[in-house]
Amino acid sequence: MKPLIGITVNYDFHERIGEVTGLGTPLQDWDYIALDYANAVEAAGGIPVLIPNCKDPETVLPLLDRIDGLLLSGGSDVNPELYHEPLNGGKCGPVFPRRDDQEVLLLKKAVEKKIPVFGICRGLQLMNVAFGGTMYQDLPSDLGIYHSVNVYQRNHAVHMVNLKDGKIRDILGEERIGTNSYHHQAVKDICECGIVTGTADDGTVEAMEFAVGHPFTLAVQWHPEMMYDSPVTAKLFAAFIKAAEK
Ligand SMILES: [Mn+2]
Q: For an engineered disulfide with 178, which of 82, 157, 161, 185 has Cβ 3.0 to 4.6 Å away?
């Protein structure tokens, strides 16, 4: 059978989502995710499975006995409490601890079980924080740099990423690639097991892997799943699915 890839999803308790879609009633919570992730997994030969944000995160842990790979998707900012920093009011975006707590638990158990993990955007940030790293809560006000570039179509490359010695460069066979950029936060202190394998020209961390004892813990800060026609995307997802097949 093709590998099952668990994809984490956004959680939001604002009933406006139901109002906008015309599907909801008042006081409903929502799980939702852009279809790009499932499309990318499907195109690479995997079977996408969405993992809901359960009330008790322990509920979804047995899924790790069934899935072959875990994709930590993009979304809201990671709770600064997880890296023991005060909320930088007005700079950090909305935070949903219910999703953060479940993803940290899923990530740690997936690593224990040697399940390949691929983190995208927030997924990279969550992995760094879960293993002890910290975040810039807002790149424009912290460093005066802009990585939330949403004026182009989503598959358009807006900055370059320089790849260093590591898995991602092995997978792609290139030193420098163009990527999109939809993030206002970025990794600050690197967690102890973290290895930075890609940076933008301004120094922003754009790719990481984690030395946690199994061969596929890869994360990128951009959105490869949105760059649906890019050979970089095809190679990254192919490598992830191949790791999940083992
Ligand atoms: Mn960027």
A: 157
